[in-house]
Amino acid sequence: MLRILLAFFLLFCISSVQADCLSSSRWTGVNLAGAEFAPHAIPGKLNENYTYPTDKTLLYFQDQGANVFRLPILWERIQSRPLSDLDEQHLIQLNRLIRFAEAHQLCLVLDLHNYGRWQGRPLSTRDQQQLTDVWFRLAALQPSGRNLALGLMNEPEGMSRTAWFNLAQAVILNLRQQHIPHWILVSGGNWSGAHSWFSGSAKEPSNAALFSRLQTPYHRTVIELHQYADKDHSGTQTDCASPATLTSYLQKVSDWAVQHHQRLFLGEFGVASSQNCLDGLQQMAIQLQHPAWKGWTYWAAGEWWKNYAFSIQPDAAHPIKPQLQVLKPFFAH
Predict the structure, then answer these.
(1) Residue in 87, 120, 62, 67 with CA at minimum distance from that of residue 296
(2) Does residue 176 contact residue 214 with C-beta atoms inside 8 Å?
(3) Biggest alpha carbon–alpha carbon distance for the chain
(4) Among 187, 38, 21, 169, which residue's Cα sits nearest to residue 107?
(5) CA angle 94, 19, 184 (to 5 degrees)
(6) In the structure, what pLDDT confidence band is assigned to residue 15 with cuts at 50, 70 and 90?
(7) What residue spans of 140-274 are helical by DSSP H?
(8) 147: nearest Cα among 10, 20, 18, 294
(9) Residues near 125 by Cβ (< 8 Å), separated by ≥ 6?
(10) Are 273 and 309 a contacting pair, CB within 8 Å?
(11) 177-213 burial: b if 16+ Cβ within 10 Å, else e
(12) Under DSSP, is residue 209 helix (H, G, I), strand (E, B) or coil?
């Protein structure tokens, strides 16, 4: 009965309120990492194994111009068993962040940071009920979806691209059939890199081939890609490919999106602070102004990063990190 009543309420929200993170046409912001830390420690202890961002950090990046925060979370932490209630401790934190987003007219993207796995086991299309369920419950934290977007799965490299596409498509249709009005972000398969978007074979189609036929009821679904600047595209090195190389990846995907009537979101990209890397970051930000892109979130910020080379979390030595100085003019103020 509760699910039926919630479905009717969600349908009312769709018909009476434009369900849109902000009323902004573009989302530009940052990943606030921490809640997904120590995935080996399940459930783990808050502020010992993992952390959630503080209001101070949220206000800092809003003051810099950010209007969206991507929040990585672990499925196993927020829901200890598939199809069960969400964990009360995590609900307290998530509700706090949603209320903050409401009060400050921000968008919060919940990112299920599970790499296409549940407790290490690769997912398959047989898991569509479980994945739909956790997102139905998370969507209910703000039924209108005005400040809350749903990031179905981060970098589902635990599955084949085809298996992920089929699972993601089924979950999107399931959620829309239950009248979930929220924006949905769906990652490409594997690592969802822009550089590899067109790579495929007869046995395993490319992301470009698969997602060109993505069905997006309500037209509030965007395809999430990632693109790191280091030459092996892993996001683990401090070197950077040339600015021209990086922008060529984004331009090709932009052209593809226009051709296939899709919208894009760059959920993760990050660089070290060398001048070559900063030049590449600036050129990427320019390319992301293309109308095919709904927006982006830089990787990353968060209070626990310490000396992480890509971090734009302020510290005593750097009240504004060099990467943030580059990004500030591109925030959708």
Answers:
(1) 67
(2) no
(3) 59
(4) 21
(5) 65
(6) very low
(7) 161-177, 207-211, 243-260
(8) 20
(9) 163, 166, 167, 170
(10) yes
(11) ebbbbbbbbbbbbbbbbbbbbeebeeeebbbbebbee
(12) helix
Give me the active site residues, please. Answer: 155, 268
Contacts of 86 (CB under 8 A, 6+ apart): 78, 79, 134, 137, 138
Report pLDDT digits (tens) over 252-308. 999 999 999 999 999 999 999 999 999 999 999 999 999 999 999 999 999 999 899
DSSP readout, 166-184? Answer: HHHHHHHHHHHHTT--S-E
Could you tell me the two tokens for 312?
């734009």
Q: What is the pLDDT of residue 8?
A: 43
Neighbours of 125 (CB within 10 A): 17
pTM of the model: 0.93
CB 186 within 8 A of CB 267: no
How far is residue 92 CA from its own chain's centroid? Answer: 21
- Rg over CA atoms, the chain: 19
Q: Round to whole Å and give the CA distance between 278 and 296.
A: 17
The whole-angstrom separation of Cα 36 and Cα 51 is: 8
In 3-state terms, what secondary structure has residue 120? coil
| DSSP label of 21 | S
Pair of tokens at residue 234: 């892993």
